[in-house]
Amino acid sequence: MTIEFATPYRNRSQIPPEPGVPYFIEKGQGDRAHLFGDLITIYAGGEQTENTFNFFTCEGPRGDIIPAHSHPDTYEVFFVTDGAIRLFVEEIGGEQHEKLLTSGDFGFVPKNCPHAYRIERHHSRIVGVAAGPSGTFERFFENLGTPTDEPGLPAEPVVPEPHRFGTAGERYDVRFLPDHQWRTPSATPPSLP
Hints:
The protein is mainly beta. It has helices at 46-49, 140-144, 162-171; strands at residues 31-35, 38-44, 54-60, 69-70, 75-82, 84-90, 96-102, 106-109, 115-119, 124-131, 146-148, 175-176. 33% of the residues are buried.
């Protein structure tokens, strides 16, 4: 049995809207949103943890690199449970790194570090956790994307209107970097002859 709550974000949610309430989320449940070709599922967020951390998954098909961005006040981790992702990270001093993460691999992104990722294999899943002094950003996904009750990937990619990147980003500690250039070997597709 799963208890449902009304929250400021949804009419029905398995996540209570306040801290201090124990709860359980069964497989296939959680607050879900479609963004680009991915399914993001939120299991815990700022409201439940007094803005100390969040816990979510991102599932998707092989695709394009997501936009470069940073979180001024939030640390983020990537733990791959299925498939593979390529994580791109730039240190504060400008040195760039990329790493192919496969099942069981972990990546850490400090606050203020530009980063992006690309899902490299179909049916990949990332467990994400973010924490920082200004709160958490889990509600960014449904504010930029589209909330859904569907358990699977979107039938068509959900591509937000350009102005929504700025408004949702400002609210949820996500700073998009549209002019950022990745200089690592796998960041850009090879040139055609």
